[in-house]
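The instructor's notes for this session suggest beginning with a concrete chain rather than abstract definitions. Hand out the sequence below and ask the class to guess, before any prediction is shown, which regions might be ordered.
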Amino acid sequence: MTTALRTDDARFAGLSGYNFDPHYTDVKTDDGTHLRLHYLDEGPRDGEIVLCMHGQPSWSYLYRKMIPFLTSAGFRVIAPDLIGFGRSDKPSQIEDYTYASHVDWVSQWLTGLDLKGVTLVCQDWGGLIGLRLAAAFPDRFARLVIANTGLPDSRAVSPEMSAMLGQVYPSIPVPSAKDVTEQFASGAPGAFLYWVKYAAEAPDFSVRDVFGLLSSIKDEAVLDGYAAPFPDDSYIAGARAFPSLVPLMPHHQSEREDNDAAWKTLEAFEKPVLTAFSDGDPVSRGGEVPFQKRIPGAKGVEHVTIKNAGHFLQEDQPEALSQAIIEFMNKTR
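After discussion, reveal the predicted structure:
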């Protein structure tokens, strides 16, 4: 049976800017273990639903600045914590986490709450998972807002490219957070492999260092908020696992095929799609282009670039991103 940890509620008391009531539901693992999944549910009950999905190693805390803008505009904001993050339960072993299991857990939650008419807002792994949900349950989604993310498939990662990455990865020395920062800053094509190896193998991996690597956050109270779900290293298996689950390597072929199937559905998705990538993200630079070209609903939409923002654009430019979402939703009602 899966062994899971649960972060003490006391660690979430008094966090900077995060004054929201928790909501919980259970999902099941393949071996029948029940895991508690946490989510926020703010704003008018009859408002259009904005589903805000976070990535790695953040949690619903990432959307704390945006929620007031969106609810003031009349929208209902629902923001889950992925399993392994935030106030959700945290299976203790890296092997407990797969791309498919994350999709399954959030699918159980989405259908269990019977959410419909949803506008998806997704960033980082929130996109890799959220877009799979949109493809699996297209009738539940009214719009997509795609930011700083991707959905790697066999077109983006060919067998030849995957084989090459698989050969290069073992030769990369275990990097420090500083090494990863330098790789991303250089624009080196193999920078992401440094990120994968750092998260999976570096003995000093920490959530705080990740935000130092991918953000300009200096406020210690904010960094405390992001670190709150992880009292010690026994809680960070999910955060360590995520980069290794991006379907790049030869052993990820089945995951790329699952994404191929998702893309097939998205290539027939005619409801409105907005890309809102930032201008300063070294991880997802240029990633908006496939979505704009391949999804019919993105045609004719006035896409936006969020200025002066890095990877965590919800943190850097919450008002600008919120306003882009509000205007897009109002225009496409």
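Then share the key points. The longest strand covers residues 34-42. The longest helix spans residues 99-113.
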